[in-house]
Amino acid sequence: MRVCQGVYVRPIETRFGLRPPAVEKVIEALAELWGETIVPCGGAAANFLGLTTQTPVQSVYLTSGPSRRLKLGALTVHLRHAPRWQLVAPHRPAGDAIRALAWLGEIEENLGAIASKLSPADLEEFVELRVLMPARIAELMSAWIGQNPRLSPDQTCITREHGLKMKDTSAEKEILDEIHKLGKGQQAEVLEFVRSLANSEMEGVPGKTLLRFAGTIDRKDLDRMTKAIQIDCESDPQGDQP
């Protein structure tokens, strides 16, 4: 069964005839094949969290790769390229919360509704993810955190002004210890640098720099890489928009 150009799946045989595999399994397999992050869209995330009873009319997923259109029998699945911050924490409630916020609207009222649907651990991860968000969302979240009674004061690790918080793991603790030694201006520069890393696009390298790997890559891995490259080259450069 053809899913998209160059990609086929084996249909499932039932007593009623052949049917395509479950969308979730196909998406999971394609994400591994293409080496991409693929997650449900914001509307689906909001529905999953119980923030809306509306179900998306179309089956839409966000991807770190190019936009594509998949065909699974009578169902059309749209893969739409999304910025990196909308793909964080894939398949976890905290990531769903970020995508739901982008879909519902970046306002304080929606932050409160989303937080009410998260467990304490998921809420903590959601709060941490704001360092990867665009400045407008990070500032909104930091202001909301300052007024949120569910977060105790000792959970704020740097200053409320810059709103930076990380888990107390060994590497992150060392980073925070160094940041505490900086002035407010320098802390702001660090925060902007972190955000620029999170929002920057991946850059390629000239092919000649890869020659040193010649003969060192397993044949099976080479075949998978070749197939993935062919699929990307065959995909519609205009994004296969419906």
Short recap of the structure:
This protein is of the alpha+beta class and 242 residues long. The protein contains nine helices and eight strands. The protein starts with a strand and ends in an 8-residue tail after the last helix.
Q: Which terms summarize this structure?
A:
flat; 9 helices; 242 residues; alpha+beta; 13% strand; two-stranded antiparallel ribbon; disordered C terminus
Topology of this structure?
Elements: E1 2-4, E2 7-8, E3 12-14, E4 17-19, H1 23-34, E5 38-40, H2 42-48, E6 59-63, E7 68-72, E8 75-81, H3 93-104, H4 108-115, H5 120-128, H6 135-147, H7 170-180, H8 184-199, H9 219-234
Parallel strand pairs: 6-8
Antiparallel strand pairs: 1-2, 3-4, 5-6, 7-8
Could you characterize the architecture of this molecule?
The protein has 242 residues and is an alpha+beta fold. The chain has a domain at 2-155. The protein is 43% helix and 13% strand. It has nine helices and eight strands. It has helices spanning 23-34, 42-48, 93-104, 108-115, 120-128, 135-147, 170-180, 184-199, 219-234, and strands at 2-4, 7-8, 12-14, 17-19, 38-40, 59-63, 68-72, 75-81. The strands form three sheets. Strands 5-6-8-7 form a four-stranded mixed β-sheet. Strands 1-2 form a two-stranded antiparallel ribbon. Strands 3-4 form a two-stranded antiparallel sheet. The longest helix is centred in the last third of the chain and has 16 residues, at 184-199. It is flat.
